[in-house]
Amino acid sequence: MSHPRVVVVGGGLAGLTAALEAGDAGAQVTLLERSPRLGGATHSFRRGALEVDNGQHVFLRCCTAYRGLLRRLGVESDTVLQDRLDVPVVTGSGQTARLRRGALPAPLHLARALAGYRLLSPRDRSHAVRAALALGRLRTDDPDVDAVSFGTWLAAHGQSPAAVERLWELVTVATLNARAADASLALAATVVQRGLLAERGAADLGYATVPLSRLHGEPAARALAALGADVRCGVKVSAVRPDGDGGFTVLAGSRTGDAAFPADAVVLAVPSDAVAGLMPAGALAAPAAPAALGSAPIVNVHVVYDRPVTTSPFLAAVESPVQWVFDRTAAAGLDSGQYLALSVSAADADIGRPTADLLAQYLPAMHALVPGTRTAEVTEAFVTREPAATFRQAPGTLQLRPGPRTRLPGLALAGAWTRTDWPATMEGAVRSGRAAARAALQDARPPALLGAPG
Ligand SMILES: Cc1cc2nc3c(=O)[nH]c(=O)nc-3n(C[C@H](O)[C@H](O)[C@H](O)COP(=O)(O)OP(=O)(O)OC[C@H]3O[C@@H](n4cnc5c(N)ncnc54)[C@H](O)[C@@H]3O)c2cc1C
C-alpha cells in the first residue's frame, strides 16, 4: 500500500500539521473540520473594516516546531521575531520598566535582564535568579513535581507577593493560562527551562503581522490542496469505527447529509472534551482522562481609538486588569486611528461578564498604561471570549494527558492537550500533530511504505 488513506479529524494547528506531515510522507489525506474555517483556536474574522483575531497569539524563539510550520506554509515573513527579548512593562499606577535580556550566554542573560528590571527590589531580583535556577533543576516529567502548585513553590522559595505578580505571573499567566496559585509546577518549570534557561535567545518574542487566518488556515488550505488532500470544512465527525480489518470508518455529517470515510489510519485532533465521544470503545486506556483536564478561558478586549495613542507594538501590564496590549492597527487593515487588542488570560472572573461591564473596567485601566488614551476618543470597542482556550493547566494534569498512540494501531491522538511535554500552546499543538501523524502512519496496517520518520 504505497498511499495509505489518512483521515485527520479537526483543522486546528494540530490537525493541520498532522495532515501536512502525512501528505508530505505520501499519504492520501482527508481533513474533516466541523467549523466553516481552518485554524481552530487561531482564526480571524471580519468585523466592519477590521479583520479581528479571535485572540492575540504570541510565540517564542524556542517554539521551533511552530516556526517550522510557518516556514512550511511560507508565511514566516508575516511574523516578527524580536532580535532580543525586550518587553516594556507598565504597572496599573503608571510605573514603567523593561525586561530586556542581556547578550551574555544563558543563564547569565537572565541575571542581566533581572538586574535592569526596576519593578523588583534588589532582594527580589537576587531571589528570583535563585528561584529560576532551582526551577531549572526540577524534573518536569515527575508526577510529584506536577502535583505541586507553582504559587506554593514560589512562596516556599522566598518569592514575595510583589515578585510573583510583577515577574513570575508576567511569564506564566500568558503561557499557562493560569495564575501561579492554580498552575502546575511542572508546567511552569517547563516554561522557565525552555524559555528562560535553555538558550539566551529562547524567549525572544514573536507575533503575527497579518490576521491569524491568513497566517495559518488559508495557507494551510493551499498547501494541502497542493498535496492533493481532500479538505472539508463544515463536516462534523460523529464516530470513528474499526472496520475489523485493521482499518477504520470515520462517520460524519454536514448540511448536505451524512458520509462515511474509509481510512487506513486516523488522527483525531479535536479538543480534549470531544475526543472520548468519538473513539471506539476500549481505544483509550483512560477514557475519562482527557475530559477531566477541563478548560480555561481567555478574553480579549478590542479597542479602536480615533488617533494613534502609542508607538509601542506591544506592552505588558502588571497590577492592572489588563495583562498584554498589542497594536493590531496595520494587521487588521485599519488605516486611521489605532486598534489595540487587550489580552486577558486566566479570565475566569471575566468570561461571563457582559461587554458593557468589561469595557467600564478595561477602558479606564488603559489610561494609566498608555497615557495617550486619556485624550483619545474610543470609536469602537468590543470583546471576544474563548471559554475553552486551553485545558486547565493545573497541578496533577500530567497523568491526564495521553500520548499520540491509542490502543488501536493506526488511530492516533493530537492536540495541544495531549502529552507533548509543552504547555497548551501553538508549539504543543504542532508537535502533537507531527507525532500523531508519524505514529498513525507507522502503525497503520498493512504497514505503510513510507520509510522511518526522521
Ligand atoms: C484566545 C486565545 C489565545 C491564545 N494565545 C496563545 C498564545 O499567545 N500562544 C500560544 O502558543 N498559544 C495560545 N493559545 C493556545 C493555542 O491557540 C492552542 O493551544 C492551539 O491553537 C490548539 O490547537 P489544537 O489543534 O490542539 O486545537 P484546536 O485549535 O481547538 O482545534 C481542534 C479543532 O477540532 C475541530 N473539531 C472539534 N470537534 C470536531 C468534530 N466532531 N468533527 C470535526 N472537527 C471537530 C474544532 O472545530 C477545531 O477546529 C491561545 C488560545 C486562544 C483561544
From TrEMBL:
<dbReference type="InterPro" id="IPR002937">
    <property type="entry name" value="Amino_oxidase"/>
</dbReference>
<dbReference type="InterPro" id="IPR050464">
    <property type="entry name" value="Zeta_carotene_desat/Oxidored"/>
</dbReference>
<dbReference type="InterPro" id="IPR036188">
    <property type="entry name" value="FAD/NAD-bd_sf"/>
</dbReference>
<dbReference type="Pfam" id="PF01593">
    <property type="entry name" value="Amino_oxidase"/>
</dbReference>
<keyword id="KW-0560">Oxidoreductase</keyword>
<feature type="domain" description="Amine oxidase">
    <location>
        <begin position="13"/>
        <end position="440"/>
    </location>
</feature>
<feature type="binding site">
    <location>
        <position position="237"/>
    </location>
    <ligand>
        <name>FAD</name>
    </ligand>
</feature>
<dbReference type="GO" id="GO:0016491">
    <property type="term" value="F:oxidoreductase activity"/>
</dbReference>
<dbReference type="InterPro" id="IPR017830">
    <property type="entry name" value="SQase_HpnE"/>
</dbReference>
<dbReference type="InterPro" id="IPR001613">
    <property type="entry name" value="Flavin_amine_oxidase"/>
</dbReference>
<protein>
    <submittedName>
        <fullName>Squalene-associated FAD-dependent desaturase</fullName>
    </submittedName>
</protein>
